[in-house]
Amino acid sequence: MTEETGPSISVQSAEPHDLAAVAELRWQWVLENEGTPVLSHDDFLAHFAEWAAENGASHHCTIARRGETVIGMAWLATVPRVPSSRAPVRASGDVQSVYVVPAERNSGTGGRILAAVLARAFEAGLERVTVQSTPGAVTAYERAGFAASARLLQATWTP
């Protein structure tokens, strides 16, 4: 370890004791990308903890940590798919809420998190993994192996 780089970065599965830090990252993501929250900070943290407990079976969080500090995250949501006669057990995944703190961006940290998420997804046998990106992150996802698909379509609700 040098003074210039500080402690090395590790990428791992989030543990229950990491969820408060992960909730803080999600709070920051919203402030950067979506504007003013509709919940207070404390209400959001409580809601996030409840949501994480309720959705642990379908949502897995991977984090990056520098020393003891959580500096990045990505969630993998796994969705069962309708069985077929060729594949009775099927599932797909969706990468959600990827965030790296600003001071750690452009360091390869996000790529390491995505590599870990994709390794987990494909080791679990997921058929495909999708992601919805902000415009500025498209190239990062492409570097990680994501590509546009003419067959994957979406509909969005407009109030």
Describe the 3D structure.
With 159 residues, the protein is of the alpha+beta class. It has a single domain, classed as Gcn5-related N-acetyltransferase (GNAT) (Aminopeptidase), CATH 3.40.630. The protein is built from 4 helices and 5 strands; from the N terminus they run E-H-H-E-E-E-H-E-H. Helix 3 (109-123) links the parallel strand 4 and strand 5. The longest helix has 15 residues, at 19-33. The model has no long low-confidence stretch (mean pLDDT 93).
How are the SSEs ordered, and which strands pair?
Blueprint: E1 9-13, H1 19-33, H2 41-54, E2 59-66, E3 69-81, E4 90-100, H3 109-123, E5 129-131, H4 138-143
Helix pairs in contact: 1-2
The N- and C-terminal alpha carbons lie at a distance of: 52 Å
Q: β content, as a range? A: 25-35%
Q: Averaging pLDDT over every residue, what do you get?
A: 93
Number of distinct helices: 4
**Strand order in the largest sheet:** 1-2-3-4-5
Q: Which CATH top level class fits?
A: Alpha Beta
> Judging by the overall fold, what is the CATH architecture?
3-Layer(aba) Sandwich
The CATH homologous superfamily is named: Gcn5-related N-acetyltransferase (GNAT)
- Structural category is alpha+beta
Shape field: globular
Domain module tally: 1
Radius of gyration over alpha carbons?
Answer: 17 Å
